[in-house]
Each structure stands twice: as C-alpha cells, then as structure tokens.
Amino acid sequence: MNHLHYLDPHPDGHPAVLLLHGLGATGASWTLQLPALAEAGFRPLAPDLPGFGDSPYDGRGWSIPGVAARLAALLEELGTGPAHVVGISMGGVIAQQLALDFPALTRSLVLVNTFAVLRPASLKGWLYFLQRFIVVNTLGLEAQARFVARRIFPDPQDAPLREALMASISSADRRAYRRAMLSLGLFDSRPRLAQIRAPALVITGERDSTVAPVRQRLLVEAIRGARQVVIAAAGHAVSVDQPQAFNRALLDFLQSVGL
Known about the structure:
The chain is an alpha/beta fold and about 260 residues long. The protein has a single domain, classed as 3-Layer(aba) Sandwich (Rossmann fold). Helices cover about 45% and strands about 15% of the residues.
C-alpha cells in the first residue's frame, strides 16, 4: 500500500487528473477545481504529499524523485492508466519529475507558477527565499506560516485564504517541510526538459511574486510544443485567487489533448 491520503471525488471519471499541491498546502487546496473537473467527466485525484495533510512522513528522507515514484505507484495501484498531471509551485516541480521518470503515465503536463530551477529574477526575490530558509530553521513552522501567508495573500479581503494557508503550513511535518525546501533549492530540470514529449501548458499568474513570470517562461521555451497562459490579476495562488479563469484555461487545455 502507498499510504498516501488522496481526494477522489469522481472515481468513475476518465482520464485521471493528478493534482499536486504546493509547499505547505494539501490536496484540499484543489477544492475549487475538483467539481469542475468531475463535471467535465475527468477523475480528479488530489493527494496529500508525504508529510503534508494526512499523508505521513516516515523520516527516511524526502526527495523529489522519491515523491514522484510514490505518485507513479499510486496511479498504478488505482489502475488509472496515463494521467493528466497538474502541479502548482512545488507540485509543478514534482510534476516535471514524474513526466521525466514515468512518461508512460503522463498523458499531459500542466505546470502552474513553478520553475525548472529556483533562481529568483531579482535581489528582492533572493532575499525572500533567504528569509524563508532562516525563519523555518530558527523560528519554526508557525513563524514560517505567517511569513509565507502574508506574502501570498497580502490583501485584507484575502484574510480567510491567509488563515487557511497558515493552518495548513503549521500542521505539516517539520522534517518533511525542511527537506522539501532543500530539495526545491537543489532542483534543476533544465538539462532534461527537452526530453518531455507530453503536451504541456504553463499557467502563470501575472502578479506572481514568488516565482517571477519571466522565470516561468523558461519552461515554455525548453519543453517542445509547450504553451503558456498568463492569468491577469493572479498571484502565486492562482488556482484560488482566480479560480474561474484558472479552471477555464485548465479545462480548455485538457479537452484539447483529448482522451
């Protein structure tokens, strides 16, 4: 057994759409996408990655290839066949790894506000990630949660989203969170991106202040045939701050790929 907790609201749907959450979030962060995908006939699967939500972390090491392998095993266990793989931020990094290591299980690839290599486009961006590293290793996850949530949801009207993200990050396994941060900092898919053959879409929030849109453009240029959709007035959490535009772009792409 894989021991990954996952949401599977439409098990009779086909094909599967594997939804991979960002750092500190859980599969429930896709709540605004699950009904739309199910209504369109797909089978959305939203797992909690190891150490997040209700998926335990065994403390034996957390790596992006290892998590990708566990997701491949989950798809095999469920007998889904090739899945559309959708990942936001950290989930987009793991989605790339899955597409590279398990191409037969990847029907298409949707990369959302993510990167091939974590290289901020400005000094301000470098300082943000340095602060995150210091905070999580000195003050703990609760302080990290406040720091990150204020960055992603800065507006007063986003208070409920900010509180939900803070609660999610605070409940993560501290060991998994720190190992995931380190793995993301070391990740570099650039030498292998040309190997991806699955149809690919890059969805970019116009106002993403975590992964600069110019860095996301590198994915479009490196993956053969990849397309990009930039969603206006959207930040890093584009799937929740602009869900209608996000769902429209996602469904248009998935339906264009076909069954």
